[in-house]
Every structure is written in C-alpha cells, then in structure tokens.
C-alpha cells in the first residue's frame, strides 16, 4: 500500500490526465472559504440552492459599507461545484456588491482555467447562489428591521 503522499500524487496525475487545470486541481485539493455559516452570521445568504443537475450550494456574504469583506460557501461534493464556489468566493472578496453581481459564470471558468464540458454548468450553480446571497443582502439593506426576524426564517 502506498503512502498518503504517493496516493495524493496519483490523484493529481489522474486529474491532469483528465484535463483539469493546475488551478482546478489546487482549488479541489485546497478549497478556499469552504464552511457552513448560519443565516444570522451573514449579511447576505443564499440558502441551500439546488441547480439543474440536482447539486446544491449556499453562499454567505459579510458586507461592510457596500464592500464584500468575506464570503464562504458550502456545496455538494462535485469537483466543478467545489472549485467554482472556491474561486468565486475568492473573486468577490474586496468587491462592491455591484462588481460582484456582474461576475459571470464564464469569468469563474476563465479564472479556473476551464472545466470539462460536463462540469461547465457548475459555475452557473455558484453564480446563481451568489445572486441569491446578493438579493438577500439588498433586501435586508432596504428593510433592516427584518434582521430581528432572521433567526426565525
Ligand atoms: Fe452538479 Fe457539478 S454542480 S455536477
């Protein structure tokens, strides 16, 4: 039986042979900003959003003065979803809500160095979850009194 290091090398080689970029491999093995937060901890929260393939993702935004200071995500375990969520949450940090909103699935794919055809839609899942988190943030910004009820729904 090989060591853990050898096994990881084999996994990486397999991913390279399957055509994954070095960036995708890095984000798959070391996902950024992966973690679950409760709705109350977020200024914008997407809820557990399910995409067309049946996989799901949630995104939590922490916003100060209209700038996204922190973003985290949780998703089903799919290489496309995890790497798209990881990359997107990195991309939005330090951006205004407006700047984050215009990020497209193609922007995510481009930063990842692409994904195989069968996983291209995973970037849509991440973007749709981000849109929901942004919508939630904007709704709360308009009616801040709803914050008091956040823990109930
Ligand atoms: Fe469904 Fe990746 S999100 S296959």
What is the mean predicted local confidence, pLDDT?
A: 94
What is the domain total for the residues?
1
- Number-wise, the strands total 4
The string of secondary-structure elements, in order, is HHEEEEHHHH
The helix content, as a percent range, equals 40-55%
Tally of contiguous helical segments: 6
Class inferred from helices and paired strands: alpha+beta
Distance from first to last alpha carbon: 50 Å
Q: Give the CATH architecture.
A: Alpha-Beta Complex
Small molecules in complex: FE2/S2 (inorganic) cluster
Radius of gyration: 17 Å
Low-pLDDT windows of residues: none
CATH class: Alpha Beta
Strand proportion, as a percent range, falls in 5-15%
Q: Which fold name is given in CATH as the topology?
A: Sufe protein. Chain: A
Can I get a quick summary?
The chain has 153 residues and is of the alpha+beta class. The chain contains six helices and four strands; from the N terminus they run ααββββαααα. The chain has a single domain (4-152), classed as Sufe protein. Chain: A (Alpha-Beta Complex).
């Amino acid at each position: 039986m090989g060591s853990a290091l050898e096994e990881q090398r084999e996994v990486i080689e397999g991913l390279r042979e399957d055509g994954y970029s070095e960036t995708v491999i890095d984000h798959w093995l070391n996902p950024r900003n992966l973690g679950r937060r409760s709705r109350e901890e977020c200024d914008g929260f997407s809820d557990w959003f399910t995409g067309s393939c049946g996989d799901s993702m949630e995104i939590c935004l922490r916003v100060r003065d209209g700038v996204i200071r922190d973003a985290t995500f949780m998703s089903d375990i799919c290489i496309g979803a995890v790497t798209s969520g990881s990359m997107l949450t990195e991309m939005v940090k330090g951006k205004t809500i407006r700047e984050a909103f215009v990020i497209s699935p193609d922007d995510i794919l481009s930063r990842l160095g692409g994904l195989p055809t069968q996983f291209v839609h995973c970037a849509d899942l991440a973007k749709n979850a981000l849109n929901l988190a942004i919508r939630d943030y904007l709704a709360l910004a308009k009616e801040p009194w709803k914050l008091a009820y956040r823990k109930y729904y």
